[in-house]
């Protein structure tokens, strides 16, 4: 429903996309309000005017409000995290992309020059373009994998959507993306092992076991998330699968989130102990 003068707490129509409770005047008008109802809502407390042409409801996202007050939109890593994509640790600062007419050193920006800010939170695609310049290559590929897996889009489609917002070197990172990846930790293990020359098979179907995350020869690597460990069903199913794999001649290495992100040298040493004597070769 539209803002009504008699109802100071009236809510706006739910707009398409991520509804943060922060809207531009244009969005409110498109949703059915008028300049008069907007003015009355501000006067009655149903809306808060943040800056020229920007308004927030009482239940608006505090991060979206902060981004608009800074003169831009929540973007980059911050937007991707709020939208539910996998983000590696180490990116806790707040990321804002500035409007075309307000550029500051601390603002995130894509390649190809500044773009207008039309919403309080950038689209996942624009946030990805900005994140390419704030994240390490490895971490960016992992979040791009997360985007591809959740949306079902192909690497070619994402490359076309990002267009000139990525520089040629950053665009080449898309060649290393894989939408089959089921988690960020799986993406990172794949990238690290391939960079060392290992032949890594992604999401192979193993007879008697089912689908696994990664395979090197007959070494099966499972990358468990934090949430995965919380399910008793998953715990029991994993042990059944591991037992079946061993009976059928496969080796299984199950890695935790902390193993991969905070103890990788030890993990790699163990993988090398297995692959060094060629125990992982399929005969």
TrEMBL record:
Top-rank taxon, per record: Bacteria
Protein name: Very-short-patch-repair endonuclease
Species this protein is from: Gordonia defluvii
